[in-house]
């Protein structure tokens, strides 16, 4: 019985540690590489503007180059609805905590540019009006202002 209780406590503790792991990892990476963090809240299988954002901006080369050039660390907090697209319990819990902290109104899509410490620099509610190149250039400009 004692072994079961200890095992349950260890599992709960490890889930709690992992809950903020992606954001903490992104902060560490951003600090090491002098990057910003781009956090995107999406509903990948039900939110039409979210799907368009990923197709028209995030999946484009201009955006991918931001990561390659160490301008941003990209983090997606997805909230799929279809059973076949469900995420692990750990990722669901982490995404819920990220939403509590950065998206309490539950806006989708909602994109946030953070500094390496997690401070909000800019937000985009809904689908950004600009194309991938303009969106990427705006992020580059903001990054240069942070790191003159």
Automatic annotation (TrEMBL):
Pfam families in the record: Thioredoxin_7
Organism domain of life: Bacteria
Gene Ontology MF: a single term: isomerase activity
Keyword vocabulary terms for this entry: Isomerase
Residues covered by the Thioredoxin domain: 1-144
Identification of the protein by name: Thiol-disulfide isomerase
Source organism (scientific name): Chryseobacterium aquaticum
Lineage, top ranks: Bacteria, Pseudomonadati, Bacteroidota, Flavobacteriia, Flavobacteriales
């Amino acid at each position: 019985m004692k072994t079961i209780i200890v095992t349950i406590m260890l599992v709960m503790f490890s889930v709690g540690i992992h809950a903020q792991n992606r954001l903490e990892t992104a902060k560490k990476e951003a600090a090491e590489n002098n990057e910003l963090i781009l956090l995107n809240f999406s509903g990948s299988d039900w939110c039409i503007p979210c799907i368009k954002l990923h197709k028209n901006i995030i999946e484009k080369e201009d955006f991918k180059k931001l990561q390659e050039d160490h301008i941003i660390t990209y983090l997606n907090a997805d909230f799929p609805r279809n059973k076949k697209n469900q995420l692990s319990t750990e990722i669901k819990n982490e995404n819920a905590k990220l939403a509590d902290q950065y998206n309490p109104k539950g806006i989708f899509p909602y994109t946030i540019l953070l500094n390496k410490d997690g401070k909000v620099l800019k937000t985009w509610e809904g689908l950004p009006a600009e194309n991938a190149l303009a969106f990427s250039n705006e992020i580059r400009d903001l990054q240069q202002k942070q790191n003159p």
